[in-house]
Amino acid sequence: MNVDFSFTTPFYVFFCFVGFLFSGESFAVEVKDIRIAQQEGETRLVFELDKSTDHRLFSLSNPDRVVLDISGSTFPASSQEALKSLPSGVLKKVRFAQRDNGTRFVLDLSKAVKSKSSTLSASGKFGPRILVELEYGPTKKAPPVVSKSLSSLAAIKRDVVIVIDAGHGGKDPGAIGKYKVREKDIVLSIAKELTKNLSALEGFKPVLTRSSDVYLPLRDRSQVARNANADLLISIHADAFTKSSARGASVWALSLSGKTSEMGRWLAEQEQSSELVGGISLDDKDQLLAEVLLDMSMNSTIQFSLNIGSSVLGEMGRVAKLHKSTVQQAGFVVLKSPDIPSILIETGFVSNATEAKNLGSYAYRKKLASAIAKGVKASFMKNPPEGTLLAWKQNQTRSTIYTVTKGDTLSEIAKKNSVSLSRLRGVNSLKNDVIWIGQKLRIPSS
């Protein structure tokens, strides 16, 4: 089967594949909504079901997390994006995995808690529910206030998250070049400028792995991206070589050999294997299936990284001399997150006098950061991740124009074009269903 990855995000491809694998499973219970309530010293989560079922709750440490298994249940993959906005209080992140016997939810925590669960019967407008209480300090007697609901968050259009990693730092200065310029200082400056550029763009949220002169281990940098639910990790560096004639900027993505070695590490380490890759846990899969799932995820991630890298390289070529005209591939550790597209940018050779002078100039670094931002923007505007503001805006523009003719009604036009009546009203700013012959209506994509 041939798959055109150039127009598809890795997460979409991966979920389609997983959906095919598990399409034969039959679950009787649906997790319809997740609500979160917060009060001082306590966070509560309510999992609303359409039918009663059993559940199991247990805690894990290093890192601190609570796991909830809901028997015989399913959870819509379409709610994956909304989960990213659910955390509150001690709750850092909510993840889920569809398992053979139901759904597993993993609650990542900022510190250890006392956890307990209970079952609530159907009442009024609510169906059966599972209440999970996370206590981490003295609580007030006032009832918790519901702060977030998955069903309401699903309507929120999230930003594209770009994690920007300034290489080296602290005790590790990186390359030291002509005029005593230091790699760690140059790349931090470019990273901060890139953050400014992306912050100014609607629909983008940049996150720095370091904002000061501190040292971070390589895999900690990737973990920052995982914790931020990043859509892209950009690691910024400056090169050096024994020959001062070497020069030029370059962009790198993970190589196939680097992918293979990382797959082995993930599958070999129990703690790592239990992590969610594209929303699917590997810990309950047999070896062959786990390898297929992980390989599928990493292949699509690499291809998406190459696409983004090509866009960035094209823009950088307008500012800097390029060392290579195409995106290169290697097994850099910082690029090895299985489900996060990642690129490494070498901004130039500090061992070259001309490039050391350029990179030592704030005006040049500012131009370079602007070029990188343009490349990132162009790539995500062309292929926005599902659930983002960019994707929603793109969908709004994909509309056709319909001219009202005699006998037409708004409801019939909506039905004929497979869109809801309320949506048709919304995109056309209609207060009611009154239309007239010759009126031009925008028909959004269904």
Structure description:
The protein is α/β, with parallel strands linked by helices and 446 residues long. 33% of the residues lie in helices and 27% in strands. The protein folds into three domains: 24-153, Immunoglobulin-like (Sandwich), CATH 2.60.40; 160-382, Zn-dependent exopeptidases (Aminopeptidase, 3-Layer(aba) Sandwich), CATH 3.40.630; 396-444, LysM domain (Membrane-bound Lytic Murein Transglycosylase D, Chain A, Roll). The protein has helices at 10-21, 80-83, 150-153, 183-199, 218-227, 256-268, 270-273, 287-316, 353-359, 362-382, 389-397, 410-416, 421-427, and strands at residues 29-39, 42-49, 55-60, 65-71, 73-74, 91-99, 102-109, 114-120, 129-135, 145-149, 160-166, 204-208, 232-239, 250-254, 276-277, 280-281, 328-330, 342-349, 399-403, 440-444. Strands 1, 2, 5, 8, 9 and 10 form a six-stranded mixed sheet that branches. Strands 12-11-13-18-14-17 form a six-stranded mixed sheet, sandwiched between helices. It is globular, with a radius of gyration of 25 Å. It is built from 13 helices and 20 strands. Helix 6 packs antiparallel against helix 8. Residues 1-26 and 270-280 have low confidence and may be disordered.
CATH architecture of the largest domain: 3-Layer(aba) Sandwich
Q: What form results from the Cα inertia axes?
A: globular
Radius of gyration: 25 Å
- The CATH superfamily of the largest domain bears the name Zn-dependent exopeptidases
**Are there runs of 5+ residues with pLDDT below 50, and where?**
1-26, 270-280
Give the amount of beta strand, in percent: 25-35%
Q: What percent of residues adopt helix (DSSP H or I)? A: 25-40%
CATH class of the largest domain: Alpha Beta
Number of helices: 13
Q: Provide the residue-averaged pLDDT.
A: 82
Count of all domains: 3
